[in-house]
Design a protein that fits this description.
5 helices, alpha/beta, 19% strand, Udp-n-acetylmuramoylalanyl-d-glutamate--2,6- Diaminopimelate Ligase, Chain: A, domain 1, six-stranded mixed beta sheet
Amino acid sequence: MKLADIADKMPLKFLCLPDDDLLDNDFTYAFASDLMSDALYLVNHDAGKTLLLTGLVNTQSLITAEMLDIKMLIYVRNKEVPQELLNLAKDKEIGIAAFAGTMFKACGLLYDFGLKEAS
């Protein structure tokens, strides 16, 4: 599903969108965790088509996304994202979006949209 369609239906608020073409990217998978070690261990393939959802708003989540070659990070639970983190995301060309609801709600919506579990 295209990121633009996901953003409209969830809804997502984009905080950092380093490339407008990212909105046209198709995403097939989602992985949700506040434990970045789980993401490093469990996300094995098609990371470029995977959304990473977390409530962990710090550089560790961004570095994890970079290591896995994930292009879109969604922070859940309406978390405040510091400007320094957004600047770093822009430098690393990783999109950042915010979702006001819980991780459970975000995962349920993505499942309803047809996204699969990344593993």
